[in-house]
Amino acid sequence: MSEGTEAVKEAKAFIDRHKICPTCGRKKADLVITTVPKATLDQFIEFSNSEEFEGHRGFALKFLLDIYLGKVPTGLPELAEEVTMLSEKVNELAPIEQHKNVHTVNGKKLRIGG
Question: Residue 106: pLDDT above 70?
Answer without folding.
Answer: yes
